[in-house]
Amino acid sequence: MRQLSLISRRVAAAAITLAVVSGAAACAGPQDSDSEDRAADSAEGKPAKGGTLTVLNSEPQSDFDPARLYTSGGGNVPSLVFRTLTTRNREDGQAGTEVVPDLATDTGRPNQDATEWTYTLKEGLKYEDGTPITSADIKYGIERSFAAELSGGAPFLRDWLIGGDAYQGPFKDSEGLASVVVPDARTIVFKLRKPQGDFPFLATQTSFAPVPKAKDTGTKYEERPVSSGPYKVVSNEGDGKRLILERNSHWSEKTDAERKAYPDRIDVRSGLDSAVINQRLSTGSGADASAVTTDTNLGPAELARVADDKELASRVGTGRFGYINYLAFNPKVKPFDDIKVRQAISYAINRTSVINAAGGSALAEPATTFLPEKKAFGHTPYDHFPAGKTGDPAKAKELLKEAGKENLKITLTHSTEQNRQTSPEVATAVQEALKKAGITVELEGLEPNAFNEARWSAANSPGFFLSRWGADWPSGAPFLAPIFDGRQIVKDGSNYNHAQLNDPAVNKEIDEISKLTDLDAAAVRWGALDKRIGAQALDVPLFHPVYKRLYGKNVKNIVISDWTGVLDISQVSVK
What we know:
By secondary structure, the chain is an alpha+beta fold. The protein has two domains: 4-265, Periplasmic binding protein-like II (D-Maltodextrin-Binding Protein, domain 2, 3-Layer(aba) Sandwich), CATH 3.40.190.10; 323-545, Dipeptide-binding Protein, domain 3 (Roll). 24% of the residues lie in helices and 16% in strands. It has 16 helices and 19 strands. A five-stranded mixed sheet has the order 8-9-10-1-11, with no helix packed on it. Strands 4-5-7-6 form a four-stranded antiparallel sheet, with helices on one face. Helix 12 links the parallel strand 15 (409-415) and strand 16. Helix 10 packs antiparallel against helix 12 (424-435) and helix 15 runs antiparallel to helix 16.
């Protein structure tokens, strides 16, 4: 069994699963390369150091400060500059869901009940100016993430560390966090309120990046942060709209087994229209031949065109991130307080039409479980309300009759944003499926900000709405705890527990699993809990998104892990 504290070994690359769902497609994507194909590409043109990698993205790389970034996992750019105590294993597919050492010598050493975690830094770690990285710098970097001026980072440390809920950051409290202890320059100890077996996953987030106190410029630090990674920031225009990175000469690959750092220079250009990005990548003129995107998908029409071009099809990377799109119920709103109504809707759903509305089987895979279909999350197959590919309206009508709610009229709230996830198209597909079961659905479309405000409100949440959730790391904990732990219901803020479930047995099981540092054992328990909660029909899982993204013709060494689902730019070469 895998122990978190022993995952310092490299794991052999696993072929990323690239199969698309059959029988539910409105469009079919290009055939993807597997790891053997990538190995062949590498043999034809082995990765080499040098050149400039261009990153073409829609979203600006804003707030480029380790305290303000939520995680280094998403777009990958921050992890080129900010190293952390641990990081993700930079391998294809499932192997990429492993947490491995980064600045630390291992993934952490827990005490007996996992309420205390100790890390030792590697020797020879340096910043871009050649000064040594110390454990005090990591402590200070963590403390900065508590400052109101630098809000925006992950909330876990505030919840997990003893005293974290009251700490205001180093600008207001010079005493620092007593629960983060640095006995010497290479040792750091974290003291937690309760057991957290997932702590090594948390230590991958950018708040664990070292920051030298003497060079902290507060809210201006994002303009010129001090690098601990293979690249340093030489230019930051328009709050991340254009970011230029060049080599950090004091970074040593001897201390960093994960980042390959092949290119000499990385030019991040953001705020671009998605159609423009895909056009530039497909054409591949000039610098665009050595370009990638980490946030822009191919759409159905683009995929259809790519499928007819063998050369373009060979340059499509496919990824799957831990994400679920689902129908949410608020049982405090009638008629969704009746489990038979929720069950009827679960049976009536036509996942084929939903997936077609989401872009087709190349971009979405049907889901009947809340947890993603990945071992790391603890996925346990179940389908409590089997609707087949196109729904079971007869069973739905039967349940509604038993509930005395025939000819039911309800409202489905959704976003007006054209994102193919909580969009009007998906809402319409749900509406049409429920109509066959005798349920009349009125659609309520809200602009994105109003929609998010409504669905995250405990007091004013709609009774029935489209929602989605993604995990901060590949484990059942960040998937199930925020959504179903009753102690995480937020009355006056963003509440993610849509069903407002507060089941003592569920809460207790979450605590028990959180004590485990054995990932395999924890995963089995998370899967069992998902299945148990799923029987209550508190949501209707719809689909897991699939990412299809082009990369330039000169880009080599493609790695897409199941942790992020996007091309890992720390691995690619352009020569």
